[in-house]
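Lab channel / #folding
Pinned by the channel admin:
"Please post every new chain as: sequence first, then the structure tokens as a reply. Keep commentary short and put observations after the output so the thread stays searchable."

First post following the new format, from NK:
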Amino acid sequence: MSSEVTVPTLGESVSEATIGEWLKQPGDAVAADEAIASLETDKVSVEVLAPVAGVLKEHKAEVGETVNVGALIAVIEEGAAPEKKPEQSTDSGAATDQAASGEEDSGAPTLSPAVRRAVLEHGIDPSNVKGTGKDGRLTKEDVLSAARAKEDGTDPAAGGAVSAPVAIGERREERVRMTRMRQTIAKRLKGAQEEAALLTTFNDVDMSAVIEARGKYKDLFARKHGIKLGFMSFFAKAACLALKDVPSANAYIEGDEIIYHDYVDISVAVSAPNGLVVPVVRDCDAKGFAQIELDIADFGKRAKDGTLTMEDMKGGTFTISNGGVFGSLMSTPIINPPQSAVLGLHRIDDRAVVIDGEVVVRPMMYIALSYDHRLIDGREAVTALKIIKDAIEDPTRILIDL
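Reply from TO:
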């Protein structure tokens, strides 16, 4: 008896996806609820699970093909899978009962869709890479590190052999199809520039008070909450103060109406294998520092592992993007539609500033607020950024809601 495999529901307003990778090939045995394909949507990768156990009979769609929700993409022949014959071994008693262990003949580790893609793209043998993830599993960063080592001629699997030299004067080109996520990012950012009236206002912040607070309480905070006290929670709470006083920065335009929110859901930009994604920390205005830090850390880990879901990305009323982690001094971030404002953070540098008539050295950061001028006036944007600056320079304001 044959069973059809169709594209699952992908989330609100998402009606199609692209076949990113087939994890099982025709003739392969599959178990019920085992991942057989990876789909790329506008925001995340989604695994397609086998509805029944059996043997994959055929693919109905090719890698790179766009498919709609509910579309037929594969057929599984139900029933017991053919048994695999154990390999002969000259070492008596060394054979492993692989059927019982659930491992494939090669003993290859279980890989997430993001890691599988990286392995294929860079030609890395996963069995030769040490995983740093949970239970020793490979992460995207592990594969990329191995790829860099391979390019540098220090690939341990190659015994230190240097790759074949490139002829002097040789120039190479490589044509790589854009992932669906990268295509969507490009369209959304270009659309934001064309539709919104974008403007950016800047300020600088003395980080001394926050650095002092972190230094004083970081050990106690980590012991009590199991997470490090970072800068993002301070800026998230400071942003909540600003958005409360300047509600237009927490709103967006829909048709000829303005949608205001009495809550703050902050989209936090994090790096994922296929580009920048913005999972949402919900109800930031009602959460404490520890929960915000825990949420952000969880999103960062799952972004690297490729396990973020559509629900993680849904919504968001305001965005914070931290280019400082990459060394950026200053930038003009682009809003995340349909949102109307985004806060850009940057690196911290010791700079000479004048305080009470004296030149002193302080750890300073430039901050930027890009906003949709159709909705937010310049006065409101400057006011919102000044509230954030004041709250960071005097964190007591966050505690007393000032």
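NK: The CA atoms of residues 52 and 270 lie 36 Å apart.
TO: also worth noting, The first helix runs from residue 98 to 101.
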